[in-house]
# Entry
Amino acid sequence: MNTVLEIKEIRKSFAMNHGRARVFGAEYKNVINDLSISLEEGMVTSLVGGNGEGKTTLFNLISGLLRPDNGQILYVGERESIDCILSSPWQIARAGIGRMFQGARVFDELSVKDHLLIQARQSEGEKPFSRMLRPARSKKLENELSERIYHELKGFEEFRALWDAADTPAASLSFARQRLLSLAGLLVGGYDLLLLDEPSSGLSRESFETLYKLLDVMRERGKTVFLIEHNMEFIKKAADTCHYMAEGRIHFSGSPEEVLDHADVKQSYLL
Amino acid sequence: MGYLSHIIILINIYVILCVASGLIIGLSRMISLGQAAFYGIGAYITALCIILLDLSLIPSLILVMLVNGLISLLIAIPTIRLRGDYFILATLAFQFIVFALLNNLSSVTNGSLGVSGISPVSVMGLGGINGQSGFLILSAVLAILVVLIFYFIYHSPYGVSLKALREDELALQTMGRNTRRLKIMAFVISSAFIGWASYIFATYMTYIYPGGFHLDESIFILIAVLVGGSGSIRGAIAGAVFVILLPEVLRYSGLPDSIAAPMEQIFFGLLLILVMRFRPNGLLGKLKL
# Structure
């Protein structure tokens, strides 16, 4: 089994002086404490832990939105291998790491179609004068992308319903459908590693099926998924391995059943 | 007739200024207070093209675009990563630097006296353009060209990405976009086309002086873009028409001149506050519920 992402002893602390300049005596809070973890190719790995234990911070470190104080984050992808610490978020995304944020983070004024095109296009043909100087080529590229998006989404009933409402602005979609739009975007984006921050939250029971199916498709294609979750039932059904995170480090790992049955986990979730 | 065509020429110049500025101020929501500086640089480069280099229409337009584009690139590289207020301050500083240079670098710009004797446009094979009807046609043609070019940019995949960038830059980065590059390109394209407005202005007036490219001018452009409706070409055009016509309306309102001039400023200021409060997307922009 190949390791896709190798994180070694990363540490991240935030100054607790509420945004003021860092001066002597500023208090620091260690959010990530010498955390090490590695992700295996083709597996769905889940991360559990209480609120404020640094799970989302870990995702921000992987996707380059934050820089760790020390440690190593190496991504060995199909397209390219990069050092996430030295790369910008867009370079990390282009290397094949896709990200879904907590909550619904969509571009309000863009239509469903534009969202999916942005993900599917991956800046191909995204030149200011492309539409004017090469209209035929630009149109053809867009048609090909639409075709590809439709082909990707047609297996999913709910994604297909989104595509049928392609001209709707994202702002007027319901919260759940905005989340589905983010997921559909990751599918058409062709990423090799997905970071999903609480994918099941806000979704209905029916939408869970879409999510399971999406994870199956990713697995089938040999893609890797790393997700933060709170829904036990979901983790047990969807994840291959599970890590429990507390106080900024991984306390223990194992199969979802093992980890979720552990006393500490039960306590932190009040099970 | 002379008055009417004068107003239309001014509107055409402002349409170019506002549509071009709309790409950064409206579509990408990078509020720039340095637009008049590029307008001024373009005008002085036009004077250079015509008085010293004796260039005809098309080579001058290209040269003005190139110089404006190059200078804006140099400005954009260090400032573009600044966010919100800091970007406004950086462009404001640029505005003041350019204004000070135009005013004080007398050996090059002739200082506050300005440059006069910018002879009318010469078009190869067609003789010279002069007289108002000539400028009416020239300015209309260039304004229509700019509107068309920017229409295509707004509706290209690039334009859609800029729109996304305005709403959530970090999310767009996690979709593989080098947002810094997208913004620099927008800044350069916008400044380059402002050069066309400079060209018409300088050749039409035949005389330019630093006072014409003061911060006030930048603020007018900002007001036109924001009031008209940011993020749409329609809005930028409406804003341009509006800021040119309003002073004329006040002129005929019967107010004495000593009151009409400050009234104009008060009116623009009040309008900007009201629009930002009640229609943040502009008068022609989409109403956000």
In short: Chain B has one domain: 2-212. Residues 139 and 200 of chain B are 6 Å apart (CA to CA). The interface with chain A takes residues 148-149, 152-153, 155-161, 163-164, 167-168, 170-179, 185-186, 189, 231, 286 of chain B (CB under 8 Å).
